Amino acid sequence: MTGREAYRKLVWPDAPLFHQPFWLDAVAGNEWDAVIIEENNSLKAYYLFAQKKLITGRYIYMPELTQFLGPSYRLSHASQRERLQEETVLLEQLCARLPEAGEFISRWQTGYFNWLPFHWKGYQQRVRYTYQLENIKDPEGLRPHFSEKITREIRKAEKNFVVVEASGSEKLFDMIQLNFKNKNAKISVNPQLLKRVFEGCMKNECGKIWMAQDQDGKYAAAIFVAWDSTTAYYIIGAKDDSFGNSGAMSFLFRNAFQFLKDNVKRFDFEGSMIKGVENYFRSFGSTQQMFFEITSSRSILSKAKKTLREFRNS
Known about the structure:
Helix content: 25-40%
CATH topology of the largest domain: Aminopeptidase
Distance between the termini: 49 Å
Order of helices and strands: HHEEEEHEHEHHEHHEEEHEHEH
Number of domains: 2
Largest sheet: 12 strands, mixed
Radius of gyration: 21 Å
Number of helices: 11
Low-confidence stretches: none
Strand content: 25-35%
Mean pLDDT: 92
């Protein structure tokens, strides 16, 4: 039995959204795999990754639309000392079982900070950030924490738009494509992958695309949100710039909080290091949460590129 097959059989029902087999199948097909540690015929720990074989060697990568993969484990000891010891041993075992890769990139979920076993094996780490609303059970209680700008946008949008639930991902992709075109940027979202992910979420009743529609039937913005048993995640969205500062995106997020209040506790805006995006997510009164990105470059080509970059920056 391969790691992937064993993982399908043993995965915890409450595993995070991005760790669910249906999600992994949608974003990575046959390219995802897992190394697992079993205890008493149950899953004790695992490490999820996606991989491609390139001319420069194996490439372990993060699939599109996927916020985090990496490790997860269940610790059994009570004391902090024993738990840290157990965690370190499990991570050492997982790290040792990962396949050799010329290029390696893996983003871990928030709360997983003990990357020392990977440091000891020559991996690198950098801190990234996401923004979360810790409790959306009371959507109206969130309003006082919104910035004045967000509050104004929602009030404005309430007068001009209604929320429509999409049955497919095509319109969202069209809006994303238009956004990239207006910014003279290359399209980076695969429409078939987006479709597979959305259809998988619909089948598993854990995702929706909401759109803001005006009185003429035109769409000003759209957001795709998916969730697991505890957390909802903003996957991707877009807006029609021809509407100007319509407030449609903020309106859709407020609607998402209202819909999800009985499903989950937490809302994750997903990580972004882009200044404008970070400022927008923070404007909802969300808290900053760090997570780790673990990398390694061991191929001759990647080492040469790294040396060249260091030389140019010296």
